[in-house]
Design goal:
With 403 residues, the protein is α/β, with parallel strands linked by helices. It contains 13 helices and 18 strands. The strands form 4 sheets. Strands 4, 5, 7, 8, 9, 10, 11, 12, 14 and 15 form a 10-stranded mixed sheet that branches. The chain has a 3-stranded antiparallel sheet with strand order 1-2-3. The N and C termini lie far apart (45 Å). Bound molecules: D-mannonic acid and magnesium ion.
């Protein structure tokens, strides 16, 4: 089954998405998500200028060989741009394989290992009262797991506080990134107050998650985890940057609060030590940034050996194509933990038609052949690329900090 065309569509239906379309000689088309928030055109160029020309004439059925060809064949290894590009190709080829077989992708991955995929939604608020209202809204929608973030008193802007619809909290900015500020002490004092508030209002029947977004040192993260233990969070996410995997030993020495890491990982090597030393409980790598279905399954298989579960990144800056791909993986692996779900707003939903469903806090990818996502290229053309950056973060003295 020869590949006859591979093209990249960059569009901005509400936020920027880079979509790869692969066509084959027998008329089957596959799609992949190549979006890297704030660095979209780098992946688009990597695909357009270097990988797409090499796809023409290749056999679309040979997914593993194609993955290895682009990974080993580049000589230069790993990296978010490269691995997002390879991921888009990989996911598009799984889509094609599913359509050719007349089966949803999860059937090709071994079939359903569960009835549905537990997802977590995002509740946030400028005050604890606003957080409560949003939390209640998510409970009313049926969520069994909810992430809680609230504005930190004394800090001008806090990560994760959304405008009312809860789906777009990385602010849009123009030619230069917005600058946020950060103060660790205020956060460490406030986080247990926020968690205590949520547990007091909503009890212990719902899972409560919290994202630290890489802002603490390892020992501060240990202290945070210990201070949250009475409120039994499902996890704390990205408590400290993970380039230094050994640093997580220090966190482990101080707390039993479960730890989730991985939304910025792009390969199994980024989490090898974290997994094999059991320094984390959930690995949050995504299908779109960690080399596609093929590589993400490898990461989750390694994790399974060490009792680490999956918890894939599923923010709105990952398109519905990679969200669907994540659901197929989630449904089929033995060590699934939870899946993040922020959803997508119109007009993104005009461009991507999806077959996945949400009911009572659980999702299912549907039974359509392939991924179950249709991409409307004509509609996408109506929403041209709109350059945006993620914010940057500075401490109160003006020095750069992790955002
Ligand atoms: C976040 C993301 O979903 C999450 O847990 O940490 O929203 C992250 O900030 C964005 O994906 C960055 O593009
Ligand atoms: Mg996060």
């Amino acid at each position: 089954m020869k590949i006859t065309d591979a093209r990249v569509v960059v569009s901005s239906p509400g936020r920027n998405y880079v979509t790869l379309v692969i066509e084959t000689e027998d008329g089957i088309t596959g799609i992949g998500d190549a979006t890297l928030n704030g660095r979209e055109l780098a992946v688009a160029s990597y695909l357009r200028d270097h990988l797409c020309p090499l796809l023409i004439g290749r056999d679309a059925r040979r997914i593993e060989d194609t993955w290895q060809y682009f990974y080993k064949g580049a000589y230069w290894r790993r990296g978010p741009v490269t691995m997002t590009a390879i991921a888009a190709i990989d996911v598009a080829l799984w889509d094609i394989k599913g359509k050719a077989a007349g089966m949803p992708v999860y059937e090709l991955l071994g079939g359903a290992a569960r009835e549905g995929v537990m997802v977590y939604g995002h509740a946030s608020g400028a005050t604890l009262e606003d957080l409560s209202a949003d939390f209640q809204h998510h409970l009313d929608l049926g969520y069994k797991a909810i992430r809680a973030q609230a504005a930190i008193p004394g800090i001008e802007k806090t990560y994760g506080i959304a405008p009312a619809d809860g789906k777009l909290y990385e602010p849009a900015s123009g030619a230069v990134p917005q600058e946020d500020t950060w103060e660790t002490t205020a956060y460490l004092d406030f986080a247990p107050i926020m968690m205590a508030h949520v547990r007091k209002e909503f009890g212990y029947k719902v899972h409560v998650l919290h994202d630290v977004h890489h802002r603490l040192t390892p020992i501060e993260a240990g202290r945070l985890g210990a201070s949250l233990e009475p409120y039994r969070p499902f996890w704390i996410e990205d408590p400290t940057p993970a380039e230094d995997q050994g640093a997580f030993r220090l966190i482990r020495q101080h707390t039993t609060t479960p730890i989730a890491v991985g939304e910025v990982f792009n390969s199994i090597w980024d989490c090898q030590q974290l997994i094999t030393e059991r320094l984390i409980d959930y690995v949050r790598a995504s299908v779109s940034h960690a080399g596609g279905i093929t590589h993400l399954r490898r990461i989750f298989s390694l994790a399974e050996l060490y009792g680490v579960r999956s918890g894939s990144h599923g923010a709105g800056d990952l398109s519905p194509v990679s969200f669907a791909a994540a659901l197929h993986v989630d449904l089929s692996i033995p060590n699934f933990g939870i899946q993040e779900y922020m959803g997508h707003r119109d007009p993104a939903n005009e461009i991507f038609t999806t077959s996945y469903t949400f009911r009572d806090g659980y999702m299912h990818p549907g039974s359509k052949p392939g991924l179950g996502v249709e991409f409307n290229e004509e509609a996408a053309a109506r929403f041209p690329f709109d350059p945006k950056y993620l914010p940057v973060n500075r401490r109160l003295d003006g020095s750069m900090h992790d955002w």
